[in-house]
Amino acid sequence: MDRRSILKGAGVAGVLAAGVAPAVHAQPAVRWRLASSFPKSLPTLFGSAEILAQQVKAMSGGKFEISVHPAGELMPAFGVVDALQNDTIDMAQSAAYYFTGKDSIFAFSCAIPFGLTTLQMNAWKDHGNGRKLLNAFFEKYNFFTASAGNTTTQMGGWYRKEIKSPEDFKGLKMRLGGGLFGETMAKLGVVAQNIPAGDIYTALEKGTLDAVEFVGPFDDEKLGLNKVAPFYYYPGWWEASADIEFFTNIKKFNELSPENKAILMAAMRVAAAETTSAYMTFNPIALKKLVAEKTQLKMFPKSIMDAGFKAAMEVFAEHESKSAEFKKIHQDFRAFQKDQILWNRVSEFPYNQYINSIKL
Amino acid sequence: MDRRSILKGAGVAGVLAAGVAPAVHAQPAVRWRLASSFPKSLPTLFGSAEILAQQVKAMSGGKFEISVHPAGELMPAFGVVDALQNDTIDMAQSAAYYFTGKDSIFAFSCAIPFGLTTLQMNAWKDHGNGRKLLNAFFEKYNFFTASAGNTTTQMGGWYRKEIKSPEDFKGLKMRLGGGLFGETMAKLGVVAQNIPAGDIYTALEKGTLDAVEFVGPFDDEKLGLNKVAPFYYYPGWWEASADIEFFTNIKKFNELSPENKAILMAAMRVAAAETTSAYMTFNPIALKKLVAEKTQLKMFPKSIMDAGFKAAMEVFAEHESKSAEFKKIHQDFRAFQKDQILWNRVSEFPYNQYINSIKL
Questions:
Q1: B176 found inside a domain
Q2: Total-model pTM
Q3: Which residues does the record give as Na(+) binding sites (chains A, B) (predicted)?
Q4: What number of other Cβ atoms are within 10 A of residue B136's Cβ?
Q5: What does the pLDDT read at residue B17?
Q6: What pLDDT does residue A28 have?
């Protein structure tokens, strides 16, 4: 316990001794603000920030509180990194790959094409070099990250027409996430369209868009995309998992007491675990509903996967040639992935191959 | 903040005001004891209990401490459930399926043959009915459980001879976990041998044992089993994942302040997440080492998987006919699993099928 927190503790106790306990709750010793890049209408994503706030308050007995703000309330969805840099906010919740315009390295913290699956991503960050390398990079932006939950493997998007070969991507007007995936799809001839979430449905209905990739069944079903595009492709090879994260202001974190530091870190773990489990639980339920409403599930043919892989590797090579730091992180990521593939081949994969093939 | 914790807070502050701060750490307000079923020599498993203790201490500022004891120190490895029932300990760390001798329902909280994989198991407990159903059952033993980390998909064991068909299981002297898996293997003709971990190596070397199943590469390699059995089979269809858990004494938990309750729950999340990531990270490293030392990796042929599945389903049917509670939990587990299989088929599985097949 450092001197500052001892003083704080004594201050709180003074109030208690005077018999005005309720004042403690009215005036938390530490009050933080978190800005999310997600709207309230995405309950798993924004819900993760709400879990964080509830946990921090409960563990600290109300002495540390975080007010959480959906996208647009304090600043635009993508303004959160700038706000951390200029100390306007204490925390953010976002997907790091939204910020590849600042630096492509951001993508590694969330998802890259042909990347790691959920447990692999956690492992790279927790016990591989992932967290260490990424937080050394994020330091220049005045934050460090920790998981807020993983969407698990995403779908490959909604299409008005079947995608039978790489040729079918040429000229396709598609709403898609940016960053390294956007660059990869551009190589395949996709014409990326920037359309706000609220306008996607209409654009797809009218044919302003030919295709949309968003997240997975649970989130996609909320947009009603199945009503205007019959084909739902898998797997989402650009997001084998997508780690949504909390971005914590380093300066503000360093001002916390040791107890509050530990409480914040643990609260993020709770939010991450519950959010990943939520995606695992609710995706199949939404998928069944979509299939009942006549959505046609289609697997990307191997020719598409091969073309996507080739294009993605070209994109990575280009970035590696421009940035030694990008290269270092990418090489570490792939080395870790190679070991994970070796392990997956003799563990979950052959197990799933059997259990997915029988009548349970 | 309840009255009790307010008084505690004031007491601590009084000590601080008197300038004898170190006494706070010397005398934690709450001191718990945890008994593990695992030895210190299994660093991922016992390490999870150590993370728990470190987290609780850090978050509470030393006001809540848990002393953690490896198997045998306070009581034998399998004495922990009795010790929770008679309030000898505040917590345990164990694998619930060790206690199927008390009731077969215990197995659902850890692993059953042809069960859920890691993320699926977390989801069943966090957002399905798993935790609710199991903790209602555990109440009669005076504890509730939460994950301490998952071993992830286990291997199918070490064999002195190749296992080419179900016939090869007949009369096979094998060291294996008990419970529903033991009953399943007995149906296949396996003669289960109860041999302490320390004697496994010698027994396998001498031929007292024909086969051994333990955990996965990281833990197995420590026993040196590769030196006395050449064949290492996969997948471990009886432990598609194995959830190691903390068992918390309900009476003692109810005596904690709201802050300490939240701190304990969050600390378990930290320990679980880091432990699962440790298995994911260290299993492939150990696997590469084993393969370099000439271990022959073999996949169980489909005839074995089919025979195992048939035997397992017979075991489940027998238990269902004897216990309505077993049936209720098993049916809920399988309904959840069916949805998970639907989801896996269009998400991680086809992704892994591709990424595992190419040269990265």
A1: no
A2: 0.92
A3: 214
A4: 13
A5: 37
A6: 84
In whole angstroms, how far apart are CA A281 and each of A152, B129, B269? 11, 11, 18
| A245 annotated ligand-binding residue | no
Contacting residues of B for A266, CB less than 8 Å apart? 55, 59, 263, 266-267, 269-270
Q: Mind listing the pLDDT tens digit for each residue in B9-21? A: 333 333 333 333 4
CB-nearest to B273 from A62, A273, A356 is A273
Assess if residue A16 is contained within a domain: no
Total structural domains within chain B: 1
Q: Residue B245 is part of which domain span?
A: 30-152+241-282
Query: Given an 8 Å threshold on Cβ–Cβ distance, is A127 in contact with B258?
Result: no
* Rounded-to-integer distance, Cα A231 and Cα A234, Å: 10
Higher-pLDDT residue of B177 and B291 is B291
Q: Which residue has the tokens 């590769």?
A: B226
pLDDT in tens, B29-55: 999 999 999 999 889 999 999 999 999
B25 confidence band (pLDDT: 50, 70, 90): very low
Residues A259, B342: C-beta atoms closer than 8 Å = no
Q: Residue A245, Cα to own-chain centre: how many angstroms?
A: 6
How far apart (Å, rounded) are the C-alpha atoms in residues A98 and A110? 9
Count other Cβ atoms within 10 Å, centred on residue A20. 11
* Residues A150-200: tens digit of each pLDDT: 999 999 999 999 999 999 999 999 998 778 999 999 999 999 987 777 788
pLDDT at B20 (0 to 100): 39
The whole-number pLDDT of residue B16 equals 36
CATH number (domain holding residue B269):
3.40.190.170
pLDDT of B86 higher than 80:
yes
Residue A331 counted as domain residue: no
Q: Which of B6, B119, B331 to mutate to test the interface with A (most CBs of A within 10 A)?
A: B119
Cβ contact (<8 Å) for B360 and A338? yes
| A313 vs B: CB within 8 A | no
Q: Flag whether pLDDT at A294 surpasses 80.
A: yes
Please check whether residue A33 is in contact with residue A89, taking contact to mean a CB–CB distance below 8 angstroms.
Answer: yes
Give the burial class of A328: count Cβ atoms within 10 A of its Cβ; 0-12 exposed, 13-18 middle, 19 or more buried.
Answer: middle
| φ, ψ for residue B90, nearest 5 deg | -90, -30
d(CA B6, CA B269): 26
Give a yes or no: residue B177 inside a domain.
Answer: no
Residue B150's beta-bridge partner residues?
A: B243
A326 contacts A105 by C-beta, under 8 angstroms? yes
CA distances from A49 to A92, A121, A183, A185, B249 (A): 9, 20, 30, 31, 30
Report the SS3 class of residue A128: coil
Lay out the sheet containing A64-69: strands in order across.
A64-69, A30-36, A91-94, A243-249, A143-150
Q: Give percent above pLDDT 90 in chain A.
A: 87
- Residue A200: its pLDDT value, please? 87
Peptide bond preceding A235 in cis form (omega within 30 of 0): yes
Is B296 an interface residue toward A (CB < 8 Å)? Answer: no
Which residue do the tokens 């932006």 mark? A141
